[in-house]
Structures are given as C-alpha cells and as structure tokens.
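Inverse folding, one chain.
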C-alpha cells in the first residue's frame, strides 16, 4: 500500500509544480492583471493592519482635542471631520466593510449560483425551466433596488449586506455555469463516461464543473468591483456598520453636509478609495479574461 501512496503523492506534486510554473509564465506578460493584483493586495494589507491601533496615526473612532474641519495639513494629511477625528486614519480603517462584504457576497453567490447552474444545465427538463424563469425574474430586477430592499428586510450590518449583495449576483453565476453545462453534457466524452457507469454527481464534479472555472474567475472579479460600489451605496444609505465605526460610504454621506462650506476632503478621499479599489478588481477581471482567452487579447491588440 505504501508504493501507490508514494506514487500518487509524486504525481500530485508534479502536477502542482507544473501548474505553478505555467501560471508564472502566463503572468509574465499580463501587466493589467499584475497592476490590479498589486492594488487589491495593498488595500487588503492596509485594511488588515488598520485594525491595530499602532498602524493608524490617530484613533479613527475616538474624538480628539484637534481642530474641527481642518483641511489637509502636515499633522492631518487628509484633514479632520466635524468631530475632530483624523480623516486619514478613518480612510485607512474604512475599507473593512467593503472588502469583507464584497468577498463574502461573491463567495456566497458563486457557490449557490454555480451549483444551481450545473444542476439545471445538466439535468434539464422542468427543473431547468423553473430555475431559469426564477433567475431571469431576479436578474430583471434592478440590482441596487433589490439589494436595498433585502438589506432593509434583514437589517443593517455586515452579515445582512453579505446576504443581500450575494443574492443579487446569484443569477449571474447561474447563467454562466448553466450555459457551460448545456454544452458539456452533449459532448462525446461525457457519453463515454456515462457508458462506463459514472454517476451524475461524478460527471458534474469531474467533467462539467472544471469547464466553467475560467468563466467563473473572470465574472467574479467584475462582481467584486461592482460589489464595492454596491456596499458603498448601502453604507451611504445607512445600512452599513453602525457609527462611529469607520466606513467609506457612511463617511461620504456624513461629509456631504459640509461640502457647501468648503470641506471637500470629507468626501473626496473616501470616494477615491472606493474608485481605486473598484478599479483594481476591474483590472483583475480584464487580466483574467485575457489570460483565459488569448484570442480576445489578440483582437484587442
């Protein structure tokens, strides 16, 4: 029994080395993808470190004995707000809700939508028609209004936002995986695998699902970019973290009251963070699309 296990381990190790080597060579000319990954990595790293008090220059929550609504200066790089809090410290710590909700919502929608899409496309029949009609009905509803309605029903906070935003993106993954499943189930090798006694679950897991990975990766990156904007909008409307927790969307909503008085920095810097993070995920999506579909890259060139 030891020899087969060692042999299997060697094969697995060889496969992993070949995949990593192939991925490294493939990324060599993907400038857009590397830029997007760098932007997202910096944001995630800063957000994680900002949860520790030693990383931010000032406490982003507690009120301080500082000038009120002071513009950007040497001591306060992004100014202060109406409660004398440092805007730069709040911007550093404010990405937590956006990043956590975006990744959580996309993971939730990807899991549910992919499973439903594989099942619907592979089995077809009444199940396929019922699920397709349901998903089309959800997809036809304006995503932002649907997310606002759901989060209003569930309540404010990170958990309700994950469920609300994740529910909105389920039809997207359903459509992608269903289309691939419809094509794969008619191929000759699937018929051959079925003829040798493979069950439906094995066929879906081993042959249908792997053919949808490339499409799912590209879609998920664009969904993450859209989720960042959706989370900011929900926080702007008061469905994000409860104050005084730092939150980009809430800070923009709070800062618009003082825009006419000239305090432009209250909304400018949180807004730039939202745009930059969404841009990073968008660049990752473009890079993945070029990576998995070389013909698309050549056409664009």
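Residues assigned per position:
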């Amino acid at each position: 029994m030891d020899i087969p296990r060692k042999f299997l381990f060697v094969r697995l190790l060889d496969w992993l080395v070949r995949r990593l080597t192939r991925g490294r060579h493939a990324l060599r000319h993907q400038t857009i993808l590397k830029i997007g990954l760098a932007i997202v990595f910096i944001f995630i790293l800063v957000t994680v470190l900002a949860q520790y008090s030693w990383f931010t220059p000032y406490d982003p929550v507690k009120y301080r004995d500082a000038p009120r609504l002071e513009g950007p200066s040497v001591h306060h790089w992004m100014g202060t707000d109406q409660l004398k809090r440092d805007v730069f410290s709040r911007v550093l710590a404010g990405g937590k809700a956006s990043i956590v909700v975006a990744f959580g919502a996309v993971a939730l929608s990807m899991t549910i939508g992919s499973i439903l899409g594989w099942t619907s496309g592979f089995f077809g029949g009444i199940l396929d028609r019922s699920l397709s009609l349901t998903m089309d009905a959800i997809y036809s509803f304006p995503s932002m209004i649907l997310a606002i309605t759901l989060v209003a029903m569930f309540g404010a906070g990170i958990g309700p936002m994950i469920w609300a935003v994740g529910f909105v993106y389920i039809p997207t993954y359903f459509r992608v995986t269903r289309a691939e499943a419809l094509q794969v189930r008619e191929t000759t090798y699937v018929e051959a695998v079925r003829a040798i006694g493979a069950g439906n679950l094995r066929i879906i897991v081993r042959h249908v699902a792997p053919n949808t990975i490339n499409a799912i990766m590209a879609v998920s990156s664009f969904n993450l970019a859209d989720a960042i904007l959706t989370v900011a909008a929900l926080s702007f409307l008061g469905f994000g973290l409860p104050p005084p927790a730092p939150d980009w969307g809430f800070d923009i909503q709070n800062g618009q009251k003082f825009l006419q008085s000239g305090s432009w920095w209250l909304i400018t810097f949180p807004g730039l963070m939202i745009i930059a993070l969404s841009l990073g995920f968008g660049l990752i999506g473009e890079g993945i699309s070029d990576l998995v579909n070389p013909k698309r890259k050549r056409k664009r060139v």
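The chain is about 75% helix and 0% strand. Residues 1-8 have pLDDT under 50 and may be disordered.
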